[in-house]
Amino acid sequence: MMKQWQFTKSGSPRDVLTMVDVPIPTTCSDDEILVRISYVSLNSAITYRLMAYYGIFDPVGAFLGRPGVPEKDFSGIVCDLRGANVKEFNTGDRVFGMGPSTFRDLRRGVLCEYILIRQDHLVKVPDHISLKDAACLTVTGYTAYCFLVEKAQLKKGDRVFINGGSGAVGVMAIQLARTLVGPTGFVVATCTSVKSDIIRNLGANETIDYTEHILPDFLRKHYSSSPFDAIFDTVGIDHSLYSNSPAYLTPEGLFCTIGVVEFGSTVWSATRRVLQLLSALFIPVYLGGVPRRHIFEPLNIVHSRMVAMAKLAEEEAFKAVIDSTYTFTDVLDAYDRMMFVK
């Protein structure tokens, strides 16, 4: 048997999560591998929002009391149980990866002691990276890679604004952006004044305290004469940041959103935010749309992207930034810190 954290109803982690005993998988498909999990990284953008809105994401499961398991990022050791098609991984290999990310699989997380997972969701941990650090790279580093490298195609000398610079994706994005734009480029990120020095040390040229300013107004005042080539909104809850972006984003620039709703939002406010996002994506300029390109980057696993992201991590284009570490049994304390300490 193994330990697993799970939930069967909507609510905050401390209110709905329980640790239970479940069987360790003993059979697998041809493309699956059993991994003994060493570390799991908590990610607020995916998991506690999933718990908060479980009845919306999986209404049938919530009604039936079907358990969900949180989290997607992990690292661990490959076990003996491997499918017939698995050739790249051997028993004892150090790996890191991402749990299933399709909409129907959002509740199939990795906050457990063993995970049966497809081989294309895994990559080997580079020799000089610890399992602890590797567990923090997948969703965050993968998301930053997809937008900054593949979508925005940042190059030397570009200017980029990252909203949510001290968040899990933000700290990865700042480091990767700095690598891509080089010393002639310019990186601006939001954070509280307490974390300004940390964010600057990661590669930001300037920081903006989001608690002290109305962001669209501040950006219009200070950056309209030198607009950004890309804006990466890792928070995603303020539509005005995009609707006002022509004042501080170049005509050819790209605006990317990955967040949608914040914890504690009402169903109405969450619905309104989704409708705003859809309007940004699909309403053309001639019908009143904002004259700047907008994309929403979903979390779709592509193995070649994971390999490319892992190579960048190996080359130290970015590295894990770990706030604190907790034992498996102290998960509720870890969630409390993530949710309430800014």
Description:
The protein has 342 residues and is of the alpha/beta class. Helix content is 32%, strand content 23%. It contains 13 helices and 13 strands. It has a six-stranded parallel β-sheet with strand order 10-9-8-11-12-13. It has a five-stranded antiparallel β-sheet with strand order 6-3-4-5-7. Helix 8 (196-202) links the parallel strand 9 (186-191) and strand 10. Helix 6 (138-151) packs parallel to helix 7 and helix 6 crosses helix 12 (303-314). The longest helix has 16 residues, at 267-282.
Percent helix: 25-40%
Class of secondary structure makeup = alpha/beta
N-to-C SSE string, H for helix and E for strand: EHEEHHHEEEEHHEHEHEHEHEHEHH
Uncertain residue segments: none
Averaged pLDDT, please? 88
Query: What's the number of extended β-strand segments?
Result: 13
Tell me the major beta sheet: 6 strands, parallel
- C-alpha Rg (nearest Å): 20 Å
Discrete helix count: 13
Strand order of the largest sheet: 10-9-8-11-12-13
How would you sum up the global shape? globular
Q: What is the terminal-to-terminal distance?
A: 37 Å
Beta-strand proportion: 15-25%
Essential attributes:
single chain, 342 residues, alpha/beta, 13 helices, 32% helix
In short:
This protein is of the alpha/beta class and 342 residues long. The protein has 13 helices and 13 strands.
SSE map:
Blueprint: E1 2-6, H1 13-16, E2 18-22, E3 32-41, H2 47-52, H3 54-57, H4 59-64, E4 73-82, E5 94-98, E6 114-118, E7 122-124, H5 131-134, H6 138-151, E8 159-163, H7 168-181, E9 186-191, H8 196-202, E10 206-209, H9 215-223, E11 228-233, H10 240-243, E12 249-257, H11 267-282, E13 293-296, H12 303-314, H13 331-340
Parallel strand pairs: 8-9, 8-11, 9-10, 11-12, 12-13
Antiparallel strand pairs: 1-2, 3-4, 3-6, 4-5, 5-7
